[in-house]
Design a protein that fits this description.
Helix content is 66%, strand content 0%. It has four helices and no strands. α3 packs across α4. The chain has one domain. By secondary structure, the protein is mostly helical. The longest helix has 16 residues.
Length: 73
């Protein structure tokens, strides 16, 4: 029980923030997942501009079939 009480004391600010807002860090984890996927796809490119473009391509979920019907997704 002492460990539980200490854990609650250590995380009290976060617990109260969740009670007030009911928001979790799931949204941030999803964005982090997009960044990690973009880093994997942009492997070998050293410019941050290229990695940023790949992030936009992944996050935007663009439909290129309207421009080029031969594109595979």
């Amino acid at each position: 029980m002492k460990e539980v009480v200490q854990m609650i004391r250590n995380h009290l600010e976060g617990i109260l923030a969740w009670v007030n807002s009911r928001q979790t860090n799931g949204f941030l984890e999803a964005i982090n997942g997009l960044f990690q996927a973009a880093k994997r796809k942009a492997r070998g490119y050293g410019r941050s501009r290229t990695i940023r473009m790949v992030i936009f391509m992944i996050a935007g979920k663009l439909d290129f079939s309207r421009i080029n019907p031969y594109v595979t997704t």
